[in-house]
Amino acid sequence: MNTVALLIGLGPLFGWGLFPTIASKIGGKPNNQILGTTIGTLLLAILFAVVRQLQIPTGWTFILAMLSGIGWDFGQILAFKSYQLIGSSRTMPITTALQLIVTSLWGVFALGNWNTTNKKIIGIAALVIIIIGAIMTSWQENKDKTSSSQLSKATILLVIGVFGYWSYSAAPQAAHIDGVHAFLPQAIGMVVGAVIYNLFTIKKENVFKEKVSYMQIFAGFFFGFAALTYLVSAQPDMNGLATGFVLSQTSVIVATITGIFFLNQRKTNKEMLVTIIGLVLILISATVTAFL
Fold it and tell me: How many CB atoms lie within 10 A of CB 114?
């Protein structure tokens, strides 16, 4: 692995790692956050397409890629709602674990991954450890009814939302389009989905006129940067899909740590120790599943 490939592969570490913290710090409701984030991602996708002179896919391929972007909206809106309930430092390990599980199972049943008995046994064991790791990161030393209820609500939202994230990666595969060429159509779908969502949920406040919505464009640049560097990193002439995927999962560490220290989502010493162990388990298991 050369230095350039490694640096590009670590792009998601900072992009996806800082994205939830920055979005939470800027503030606003999930409506504001999803609108600004998708606009920022689209601006970056347009710039990338122009610089690389990419040919935009057409027809059914374009539609599937765009729908996958709308699917991402669904998952991310529920993630934003979870940030409000339990904070990004607890949300990110859970949603990362769920994405790893769903992506791995999709690979097994739809793409024929883990095609031997030994691989299936190792893979299933890794998924179980990922679940344990996620539970550890959300563990609280002194629980009360309110915190337990919020954690339960957030977990339900994330379990539902993971299918939106799953479509973000599965739909382009179904359309037989690589991630680099899917990036712009996906970003277009993300903006379309965010606009539709906000049009149907407008009450007294019009998020299209609120300053915080457009401040969230800054957070969108971080998400778009992470998605773009991951797509480039996963190319065969860079790090490849397996290594690129593992490198991208390191973002959960930054997201959790920055959420704790910059958003004051404090943990006790015991909670911090258990969280770190849980993160290590998630990362080790992610590495195992990627290289099976």
Answer: 20
Phi, psi dihedrals of residue 27, rounded to the nearest 5°: 95, -160
- Run of H or E residues at 28: none
Q: How many angstroms from the chain centroid is the CA of residue 90? A: 14
Model confidence over 155-191: pLDDT tens digits?
Answer: 999 999 999 999 887 877 777 888 889 999 999 999 9
Q: Which residues of 221-252 are buried (b: 16+ CB within 10 A; e: fewer)?
A: bbbbbbbbbbbbbbbeebbbeebbbbbbbbbb
Task: Determine the structural domain holding residue 13 and report its residue range.
Answer: 3-290
How many structural domains is the chain composed of? 1
Q: What's the whole-model pTM score?
A: 0.91
- Please give the angle made by the CA atoms of 14, 183 and 29, to the nearest 5 degrees: 60
Pairwise CA distance, residues 228 & 111, whole Å: 24
Cα dist. 214→43, 105, 184, 219 in Å? 12, 37, 20, 10
